[in-house]
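In response to the reviewer comment on reproducibility (Comment 2.3), we provide here a single inverse folding case reported in full, input and output, so that an independent group could reproduce the run without further information from us. The structure tokens appear first.
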């Protein structure tokens, strides 16, 4: 069979050479949406970069389309949900630009420390001036890295080669990974207070949006430098502008911005700002690598082989036995819940299975739990295929144990997770064939339906607590759908779990936390 491949954006030619005679590759760039819709039905695969908009209309028109490959990390230009509904696999190439991005961050650090672009422009203007361009050395300066993923780790290695003192903040990295990198992990506040240079390598999430703001900048050293080659939106650009203009910060090097292309040039026009138009991955080598990566992944996908860069995969892996499939949502929700409720830096995950279910292959359930837990932690696109890889990259040991003996229930899934805060346990089962339940949360035996919105309250067992919480929820128009209490002794610590019909905001949680005898309150959101 000859597969037909459409390449609709400029792609490195060396990468495309990996397509053999089995593949007919048509290079058609600058297609309009109408033209793309008209021709896409002929092809089994579509390769794009950021230029082509792969809309729902395009995907529906792709009657033979099996896979869309994005030569790069982001998939904002692809209607991923629509692709999933159409049964079309979406792939990306997240690793190909790692070195390019890390080197760009180091280059930007040098550029802002030594004011190289400013001096270069002054010389091109015909002026030989040295005094305005007095710089600082990187040697023995303290570099604070926020985020020790692939790129942050590579920046750390290069900074240590420059004999910088590297400290880092990453709430989810394991001791095994940091000891391998020989990096001192600190709390965010410590990194901001102590670092001479701060380099950002975090995803943009609700938690990290505007992480660098007026308040956090105030805690930084006077004369510190900020480098952001990760994501726009991690920095409050107005706060950064004021800090640079007032001299609180010595300089900033920016490759990414809130809005791209930028229209407000106030920030980049400051003399102590070095800026580039999102060039982190713009090297010949990186473009060749991402092209080669995505082509290899597309070939594997078309041949029906597993791919570890899939952004979307079927909701249930095809190789899962029929009797195991009902446990897939339960395992995923257990992982997601664990990350949201317990938190902590995960060191080891031990999946334990009991009962009749152990006669089947259980790796899909383990991978599903990993998908649930790392989707909350890493915030990248996590699927059944790459979840174990993410665990390995982060130094998390995954162990699988099973016993045909029944443990309180016909079948039981139990995750025993070692974190820096101790060992935490969550257990789940099915009542009947399709009725999932959490039956253990930490030290408490419970009977909790894993519904979309959960409110969990740790408290000291005292009369009137349920009424006090219910009153606050009612005052905030939050309806209670169900409730379960777990406790170990009368008057001791207890856990209240409420299923509610809507999201609980921070203000409501704070109200609940103010109730006497309440130890903590958390809201969890489960997608299934």
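Designed residues, in position order:
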């Amino acid at each position: 069979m000859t597969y037909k491949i459409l390449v609709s954006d400029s792609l490195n030619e060396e990468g495309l050479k990996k397509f053999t005679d089995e593949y007919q590759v048509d290079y058609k760039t600058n297609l309009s949406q109408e033209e793309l819709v008209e021709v896409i039905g002929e092809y089994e695969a579509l390769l794009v970069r950021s230029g082509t908009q792969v809309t729902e209309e395009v995907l529906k028109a792709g009657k033979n389309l099996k896979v869309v490959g994005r030569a790069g990390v982001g998939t904002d230009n692809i209607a991923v949900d629509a692709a999933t509904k159409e049964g079309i696999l979406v792939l990306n190439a997240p690793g190909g630009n790692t070195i390019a991005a890390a080197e760009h961050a180091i280059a930007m650090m040098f550029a802002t420390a030594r004011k190289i672009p400013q001096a270069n422009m002054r010389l091109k203007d015909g002026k030989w001036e040295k005094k305005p361009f007095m710089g600082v050395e990187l040697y023995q300066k303290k570099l604070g890295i926020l985020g020790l993923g692939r790129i942050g780790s590579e920046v750390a290695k290069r900074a240590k080669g420059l004999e910088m003192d590297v400290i880092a903040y990453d709430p989810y990295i394991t001791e095994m990974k940091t000891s391998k990198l020989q990096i001192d992990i600190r709390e965010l506040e410590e990194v901001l207070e102590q670092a001479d240079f701060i380099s950002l390598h975090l995803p943009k999430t609700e938690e990290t949006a505007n992480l660098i703001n007026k308040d956090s900048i105030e805690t930084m050293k006077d004369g510190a430098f900020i480098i952001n080659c990760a994501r726009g939106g991690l920095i409050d650009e107005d706060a950064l502008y004021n800090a640079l203009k007032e001299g609180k910060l010595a300089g900033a090097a920016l490759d990414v911005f809130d809005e791209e292309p930028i229209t407000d040039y106030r920030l980049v026009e400051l003399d102590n700002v070095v800026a580039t138009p999102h060039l982190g991955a713009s090297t010949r080598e990186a473009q060749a690598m991402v092209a080669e990566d995505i082509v290899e992944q597309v070939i594997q996908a078309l041949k029906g082989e597993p791919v570890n860069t899939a952004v979307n995969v079927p909701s249930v892996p095809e190789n899962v036995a029929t009797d195991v499939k009902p446990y897939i949502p339960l395992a995923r929700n257990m992982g997601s819940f664990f990350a949201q409720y317990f938190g902590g830096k995960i060191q080891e995950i031990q999946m334990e299975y009991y009962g009749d279910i152990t006669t089947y292959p259980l790796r899909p359930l383990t991978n599903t739990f990993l998908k649930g837990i790392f989707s909350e932690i890493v915030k990248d696109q996590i699927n059944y295929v790459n979840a174990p890889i993410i665990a390995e990259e982060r130094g998390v040991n995954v162990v699988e144990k099973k016993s045909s003996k029944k443990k309180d229930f016909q079948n039981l899934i139990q995750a025993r997770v070692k974190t820096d805060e101790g060992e935490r346990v969550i257990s789940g089962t099915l009542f009947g064939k399709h009725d999932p339940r959490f039956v253990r949360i930490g030290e408490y035996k419970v009977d909790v339906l894993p519904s979309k919105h959960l409110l969990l309250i740790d408290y000291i067992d005292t009369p009137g607590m349920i009424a006090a919480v219910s009153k606050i929820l009612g005052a905030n128009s939050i309806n209670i759908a169900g409730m379960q209490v777990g406790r170990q002794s009368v008057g001791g610590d207890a856990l209240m779990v409420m299923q509610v019909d809507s999201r609980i905001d921070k203000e409501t949680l704070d109200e609940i936390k103010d109730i006497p005898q309440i130890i903590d309150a958390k809201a969890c959101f489960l997608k299934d």
